[in-house]
Amino acid sequence: MTEEAIFRSANMVLVQVYMASEIARDCVWVLGEMGSIEFLDLNEGVNSFQRAFVEETRRLDNTERQLRYLEGVMREQGVEEPQGAYGGAYGGAARQPSRDLEELMRRTPQTTSEMDAVVKAVAEYEQGVREMAETYRGLEKRQQGLQEERSVLEGTRKYFETRMSYDGYRDGDDGSSDRNSTDRFTISSNDSLLTQEERAEGFGPDDVGLHDLEAAPSTGAGPMPRESSVNILGTAMGVVCGTIETDKFAILERILWRTLRGNLYMARVEIETPVVDFDTGDEQRRCIFAVFTHGGGLVARSRAVAESLGGRVVEVPGSHRAYAVAVHGVNGKLADVQRVLAGTAERLAVELKEVAGQLADWRAAVARDKAVYAAMNRFDYDPARRCLVAEGWMPRGDVGTARAALVDVADRRGVDIAPVVSVVDSHLTPPTFFRTNKFTAAFQAIVDAYGIASYREINPGLPAIVTFPFMFAIMFGDMGHGLILTLAAACLCLAESAIARQPHRGEIFDMAYSGRYVLLLMGLFSIFTGFLYSDLFSRPVTLFASRWAYPAGFKEGQTVSATQTGVYPIGLDWAWHSAENTLLFANSYKMKLSILMGFIHMSYSLQLSLANFRFFKSRVDIIGNYIPGFLFMHCIFGYLCLTIVYKWCVDWIGLKRVAPSLLNMLINMFLAPGTVDHKLYPGQGPVQLALLAVALVCVPWLLLYKPLALRRAHNHSVALGYSEVLSGPSEASSLASSHSHYSSLRPSESESHVLSPSNSLSPSNSHSSSFSHPPPPPFNFADIMVNQVIYTIEFCLNCVSHTASYLRLWALSLAHNQLSSVLWNMTLRNSFVAYSERGFWGCIIVVLLFALWFVLTVAVLVCMEGTSAMLHSLRLHWVEAMSKHFQGEGYKYTPFSFYHLLTSDDDS
């Protein structure tokens, strides 16, 4: 890993690649394995459906659709796919990008014949699985229909047996033979189909429910209605029975009531087991309905209404023998369907297992080949040389490897014309590329979430590796809580390989896993700061003898003062934890420590801006922005930090003086310059007056120098007669083009200057705008002045607000310590009593309170407080520190890489 890819982004170059048409696919394949080039689109003006390789892309799109269908059927049937090595969308077919030439030579591209075989195999499996799946679904629908028909027969049998009584049989038999149409049924009531007991209890027709029907005893006598009709009280009534969705029963009832003008009676029985709607895949509740009405026309109308609402109408037999035959027939059909369904499911499972073993390889092959053709659609075609021309960004150090790898492809294919890789000059702003590994990737992601660094700008992610967990630890400092966080992060780091192979980790867990090394450093730094605070679960750490001695023989309740006998070896003396004035001391110490840490952090970040200005040779920014900003900040807040350290170093008790207030000193420094009521050191008044004068001078310096210098440079170039359009951008126009001090183009501008493929290849006309120089924006002094006024106001105000913002280090550290102390006192401290007071129950109370304390410690102090401290540390880096040097006007480098494609969770 080179320095340029860590401290600054990699040195990128724009390359043009000329490759013969017959080996273009293999060349792009090798570049995808290398993962070092970001192709530019040379066909921006061409519709996506009119590009050269749209047919190949459509064919692979269809294959991907077939693979998604096979995956869906596998999920429905519960067939699991073996997980790949990386656990990404395309499994174990992913290989790490390689820049080693020998390794690239061993990775042979997949031939078109092999890809055709994959496409053919997928199509055959998809067709076979689709046919079996459709057959299986049809059998399931048939099975469900038969089950509903059997439920209707059973429900109506119970209904008629429990709701009707019979006068007897005309021929005197036992009811096992068919009755003629004169069989008569009598109802126990003239106005409803109720039993005498139900009528006596006041039930009405709307009170009949499933528990009423099923709980009633079966009489076991009498025939069933014949031909879906009954003869009740001398009146022939038709019966329409079937099933319908429970939610639609009320609709059916209302429609039939209006359609039949109330000339009907309806019954309803719920089906306990929900059924699946095969069209939507959702479960639905259904019920059995029975409609009694007069006349064939009303029966037909009832049937039509029920079927229009998605109901299933079932013919009810008219006698016990016909009922038995119907039930036997339904059971036989159901058994046959279930037997065929089991065989179909078995054959489908065997087919899907064969698919599951090859699905990851198929998916990877299709995705890579599709990505290759998508990249080739960005290329331009040179008809004169019968070759494809590609342009893209590549790290300068990888150009040689790419050139050798493409030449090897031509040699293996026996092509006489080897691919040509040439570096071209360009006015375009290159993408920003920082090389990362599994340790630095999370820290880089923290910075990239705020903004992508401008090209060749110093990478804020490098110092964040130390400063981010350290700022967190100042707020979170506790040895015990840091140890819990460290152990959790260490488990994630040790099991990273196993966790990476898991396909579905959950969003929250995946965030913790991605930042496992950030969590590890946060825990380690918290242990360190907790050691300095002498804090372990809010309890003091007595590693060394205290350097404070209390007088002997003092009584309980008496206020005494300890005498300092020396200096504690490291960190805070643990005796402060038991002192009455511990909170006053901790507040004073941590507040001043926060100011010091904030000033050091911002001052360090300000030095990074100087490094950027020097690297980009921006002399006007060094003189006009850095120097006055540095002086302004250090004359006020740097002086404050020096007085804090000086006040700590003086023995005010030995001098028998009251330590002066630094807050009052800073206020009077502006309100009463030169006047000091309580001197901190001799000559304090003149020193403060001089510092204040320098700070005030820096404000107009910061405001006026850069605009006036740019206008002077512009006037000088105009006086010399130079045309900025012909000679290229001058310092004035380039620096004044935006608020950025050293960035020339934004990503959108760099993309908009690529020419269309209509340009032909010639020494004077490239396939892109790499050699063209668009005119810089016109010099506008008013815009520059307004931008500088805004910058000056923001900088001066931010020096105050950002310094105050670092006081959150003190506030959160104090809150964390106090909350931890309260939790200890409210739980474990109450459990530690003498055994003689509570006996055996005291042991149980200790265990229970320890469990409560531990759960609350992990949930509240580690997870919730840890998240809060992490977000505050994030804010201090994004706003307070990075605002001093970070431009963030770049765009991310996204190379064409098979590894990134196959390990991505997106299916795009």
Automatic annotation (TrEMBL):
Question: What keywords are assigned to this protein?
Answer: Coiled coil, Hydrogen ion transport, Ion transport, Membrane, Transmembrane, Transmembrane helix, Transport
How is this protein annotated for GO cellular component?
fungal-type vacuole membrane; vacuolar proton-transporting V-type ATPase, V0 domain
The membrane topology noted for this protein in its Swiss-Prot or TrEMBL record is: Multi-pass membrane protein
Positions in coiled-coil regions: 122-149
Q: Where in the cell is it found?
A: Membrane
Q: What InterPro entries has UniProt attached to this entry? A: V-ATPase_116kDa_su, V-type_ATPase_116kDa_su_euka
Q: Per its UniProt entry, which superkingdom is the organism in? A: Eukaryota
Q: Where are the transmembrane segments?
A: 470-495, 516-534, 593-613, 625-646, 687-705, 839-864
Statement: the UniProt record of this protein carries the keyword Ion transport = yes
- Residue ranges of the region described as Disordered: 81-100, 166-227, 741-772
Q: Which GO terms describe its molecular function?
A: ATPase binding; proton-transporting ATPase activity, rotational mechanism
Biological process per Gene Ontology, one example term: vacuolar acidification
Q: Where is the composition biased (Basic and acidic residues)?
A: 168-182
Question: Residue spans with biased composition (Polar residues)?
Answer: 183-195
Function (record text)? Essential component of the vacuolar proton pump (V-ATPase), a multimeric enzyme that catalyzes the translocation of protons across the membranes. Required for assembly and activity of the V-ATPase.
Q: Which family does it belong to?
A: Belongs to the V-ATPase 116 kDa subunit family.
Q: What is this protein called?
A: V-type proton ATPase subunit a
Organism of this sequence: Dekkera bruxellensis
